[in-house]
Amino acid sequence: MINHLVRVHRSSENFPQSEHLAQKVAEVAADSVAVSADVAEMIINRIIDNAAVSAASVTRRPVTSARRQAQAHPATPGSTVFGIEGAYSPEWAAWANGVAVRELDFHDTFLAAEYSHPGDNIPALVAVGQHVGAGGHDLIRGLATAYEIQVDLVRGMCLHEHKIDHVAHLGPSVAAGLGTMLGLDTETIYQAVGQALHLTTATRQSRKGLISSWKAYAPAHAGKMAVEAVDRAMRGEGAPAPIWEGEDGVIAWLLGGPNVEYTIPLPGPGEEKRGILDTYTKEHSAEYQSQAPIDLARRMREQITDIDDIESIVLHTSHHTHHVIGTGSGDPQKFDPTASRETLDHSVMYIFAVALQDGEWDHEKSYATERANRPDTIALWKKISTVEDPEWTRRYHSTDPDEKAFGAKAVITMRDGEVITDELAVADAHPFGARPFGREQYVTKFRTMADGVIDPAEQERFLGEVETLETIAPGGLQALNTLVVPQVLDEAPQTGKGIF
């Protein structure tokens, strides 16, 4: 890997395009290095994972709204929209499928200086690949790039510190991945990356306070903007430049300012793109920092005779967990039993309480209105708080995979004064966890989420196609769509009429 130092440059400086970060990203995307077998296998795992969470979310209102928007934009040859027949404009298919993937906060994650869900790259690349007649080999190459670029930006450039949403790294990664898949030249990819970044910077209010359905739409919007940016760049249109380093650019006014320097690691010429192997998926439908606490709560409940006798629970954890999904956020909504699912998903206090009581976590039951309003749950919920522990913060940011951790230490004090303490560094499903996810677990997750939603024969057809992704011929990527049982779609809510 080559570490690139990135800072603001005044317009009067001699700062050639060859030194722009967008140019470095474009050069990585244009490098035709082969994809290794383990990377290709993980790409297949994540396509299966995305199909699983899309099946689980297919009748939710935000997903239904996005699907109906896409249906208003038919196209030839077009792209598929999850669950249904037909061919639709690729940017709108990317939009609809992106919302389906993101709605339940249930797919893969990578955490470093910034946060990310790199599986958000997949819908846009699949949609464009279908429309242009790409094959499985092309898609694998494109996704290897998209994951690599997003992971590398996340390693070196913090957005949330400046209240910029993490999808600002997603727009460039989708553009770069599309560039690889389509075999575009470096200059075209450079312009597309710049446009995509320029159009996908937004504030983190989407994940603060009363969190709405836009949390699911934000990455879909970034994917859609990137598709459109690539289309314009292919037609010869340019982008603001230098987009990251300009004196009125992203770093100068949205991030650290003119005196800050970032270090972005990127593969050198001929170096494999292996970033996806550092990412991890979720066993539970909740914010990633809740994964280990859920497993910890399930383990600790065996040590507690009567949960009603708990006096208090303090979760000692990282800065991110404390300030984003813990009491350090200062969000009263995180203790509100009438709050939205998206808000409860970002309350580790609620999540730990339910997991401790139930000994499990379900993507529907655990968020049900009646579940959140149970008096004993509310009582326990209010007894839980978080504190930042510098050691957990250090481990969160560690670059050593043996040290890097996203967990917590729970200190449970009983009414009689007994103190029960336990800790868990990584979730059970993490590559270093008690039960790491492999192909078998991804397939099981898909079959579980698809049960009653996708016909068993259709499930097997999809799995057979995706597991031989490399051999899917050009023009055959439509096989990656899965059709939902019509009666299930009939249960989707009415969403009102929009413009389209």
Automatic annotation (TrEMBL):
It catalyses: citrate = D-threo-isocitrate; (2S,3S)-2-methylcitrate = 2-methyl-cis-aconitate + H2O. Belongs to the PrpD family. Its EC number is 4.2.1.3, 4.2.1.79. GO terms for biological process: propionate metabolic process; tricarboxylic acid cycle. Keywords: Lyase, Tricarboxylic acid cycle. It is an enzyme of class 4 (lyase). GO terms for molecular function: 2-methylcitrate dehydratase activity; aconitate hydratase activity. InterPro entries: 2-Methylcitrate_Dehydratase, MmgE/PrpD_sf, MmgE/PrpD_sf_1, MmgE/PrpD_sf_2, MmgE_PrpD, MmgE_PrpD_C, MmgE_PrpD_N. Monomer. It comes from Williamsia sterculiae. Residues 284-470 form the MmgE/PrpD C-terminal domain. This is Aconitate hydratase. Pathway: Carbohydrate metabolism; tricarboxylic acid cycle; isocitrate from oxaloacetate: step 1/2; Organic acid metabolism; propanoate degradation. Residues 19-262 form the MmgE/PrpD N-terminal domain.
